[in-house]
Amino acid sequence: MKIGYARVSSTDQNLARQIKALKKADCEKIFEEKQSGKSTENRPELQAAIAYVRQGDTLVIASLDRLSRNYDDASDIIKQIRDKQVKMEVLDAPFLSMRTGDSDMDKFMFDLLTKLLAYMAQTERKKIRERQRQGIEIAKANGKYRGTRPAYAADTPNPQKRFIYRRIVDQLRSKATGAPISYRAIAAETGVSVQTVINIKNRLV
């Protein structure tokens, strides 16, 4: 049995083109939803489709990014499908389909696809880090880079965290004048980590 899955990212987009293609591919049941593909969270129809398919079925999608735009998530979904002994058919990239009629070739295509997705995910992470690095360098050159704002500081927007910061500072000053109090004790009293206390202490120096 062929089961289709169609997705668009927002409510003002149309699923008609994908549904037409899935019906043309002889899908007997189609799951459809309008949700972002950045992650698999809040994707009830995708989860329903994965739960619905049975051994020997084929999950059909119009394109690979309909599963997810996150390569790690897409790889996890494909593994779930494979574990259920379900094949996958990608309409706009038939060479990625795990439905060749040859079990050895299907396994090869699965391994190839998961490795390809892992490579793409790693490459994307490297690109993101490089863009961040370049952005920081440009900001530093323009005198606009201040780094990440500490969660606990005198000017943090959260009033509770400002209060905790002031309490930690008071205790650190008491410690500096000889009060027998440890970083661990300060952390336990204020509900933060020891490293947070040390970071605040270092900023006071």
UniProtKB/TrEMBL annotation:
This is Resolvase. The active site is at 9 (o-(5'-phospho-dna)-serine intermediate). Gene3D superfamilies: Homeodomain-like, Resolvase, N-terminal catalytic domain. One of its GO terms (molecular function) is DNA binding. Signal peptide: none annotated. GO terms for biological process: DNA integration. InterPro entries: Recombinase_CS (IPR006118), Resolv_N (IPR006119), Resolvase-like_N_sf (IPR036162), SSR_resolvase (IPR050639).
